[in-house]
């Protein structure tokens, strides 16, 4: 691990101001960042610890939704009675990820910012445009079984690893932020994560130093909430494919897919086909899929997983 300096922030704007300096990064739960620092994929020169900012409350909004403090732990969020009752897909997605110990420490904002699990990103001996822009992508032409089938580019085929992000996308969450000047922004989750293009190292819409302060969920939409995750083993494994869905009694609803792209993958136009079944939805959802021989299995796996979700919704 490279040497770094450390400070504990006392207010959000001061934290954003400190983080705007080159080489600075926020530290909250640290469950992803510290692992990456140990293998020198991440080498910040200064850490701003934001755990004392008190941004961990989960409160109702005046519009009937829920405002989740950026540093609410994954355990607290998944266990919240209002989340379990009105946003069940979110609770189920969080519990499907990581271990209990990690969920006790991991934060909501940190989960939004999880880095990819592409093996070439973690191996500093390999070329990776995401880790070091302009060096190339060893995953293209390499082993790509877990990597993206849609939305990828000639510079990067990494996937977003988060279960929570897929549920946030299907719920139309909004990310609230503050920057070094004290200005705030509300970023729709649909615009928060970026596709790789030719700048795969820029993964979100955040500006340098911009601090996530909360995530807001709109008022509940009812329906049956399902999160189905397909992985190599029963626990503590990242999704090969996952489906987050909210299905209404008439068969209409919303669907987002994880494990297939650089961001949670949702195509609203595909949702109109939900009453016709998984095949019809998948045809539009993955119409632009360009899988490799290693990960071509993901396309039919999305359809089969979605079929299982629709079947569960019909019998719920």
Question: What report would you give on this structure?
Answer:
The chain is built from 13 helices and eleven strands. It is 29% helix and 18% strand. With 316 residues, the chain is α+β, with helices and mostly antiparallel strands. Helix 5 packs antiparallel against helix 9 and helix 12 packs across helix 13. It has a five-stranded antiparallel β-sheet with strand order 4-5-8-6-7. The chain is globular. Helix 2 links the parallel strand 2 and strand 3.
Following the backbone from N to C, one meets helices and strands in this order, namely EHEHEEEHHHHHHHEEHEEEEHHH
Low-confidence stretches: none
Query: How much helix, percentage-wise, in residues?
Result: 25-40%
Q: What is the end-to-end distance?
A: 50 Å
Largest sheet: 5 strands, antiparallel
Give the averaged pLDDT, no decimals: 97
How many β-strand runs?
11
Shape: globular
Structure summarized in a few sentences:
With 316 residues, the protein is an alpha+beta fold.
Supply database-style keywords.
316 residues, alpha+beta, five-stranded antiparallel sheet, three-stranded parallel sheet, globular
């Amino acid at each position: 691990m490279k040497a770094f300096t450390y400070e504990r922030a006392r207010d959000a704007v001061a934290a954003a101001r400190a983080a705007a300096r080159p080489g600075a990064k926020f530290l909250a739960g640290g469950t992803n960042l510290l692992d990456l620092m140990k293998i020198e994929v991440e080498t910040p020169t200064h850490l701003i610890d934001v755990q004392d900012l008190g941004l961990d409350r989960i409160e109702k909004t005046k519009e009937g939704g829920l405002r989740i403090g950026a540093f609410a732990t994954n355990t607290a969020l998944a266990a919240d009675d209002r989340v379990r009752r009105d946003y069940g897909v979110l609770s189920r997605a969080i519990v499907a990820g990581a271990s209990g110990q990690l969920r006790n420490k991991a934060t909501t904002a940190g989960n939004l910012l999880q880095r990819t699990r592409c093996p070439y990103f973690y191996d500093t001996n390999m070329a990776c445009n995401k880790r070091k822009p302009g060096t190339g992508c060893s995953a293209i032409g390499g082993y790509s079984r877990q990597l993206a089938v849609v939305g990828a580019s000639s510079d990067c085929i990494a996937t977003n690893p988060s279960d929570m992000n897929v549920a946030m996308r299907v719920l139309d969450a909004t990310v609230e932020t503050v920057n070094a000047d004290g200005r705030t922004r509300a970023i729709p989750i649909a615009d928060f994560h970026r596709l790789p293009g030719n700048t795969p190292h820029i993964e979100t819409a955040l500006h340098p130093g911009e601090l996530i302060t909360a995530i807001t969920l709109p008022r509940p939409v009812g329906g049956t909430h399902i999160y189905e995750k397909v992985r190599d083993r029963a626990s503590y494994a990242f999704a090969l494919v996952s489906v987050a869905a909210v299905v209404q009694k008439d068969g209409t609803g919303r669907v987002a897919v994880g494990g297939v792209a650089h961001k949670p993958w949702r195509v609203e136009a595909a949702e109109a086909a939900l009453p016709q079944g998984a095949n019809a939805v998948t045809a539009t959802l993955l119409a632009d899929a360009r899988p490799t021989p290693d990960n071509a299995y993901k396309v039919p796996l999305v359809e089969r997983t979605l079929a299982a979700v629709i079947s569960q919704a019909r019998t719920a």
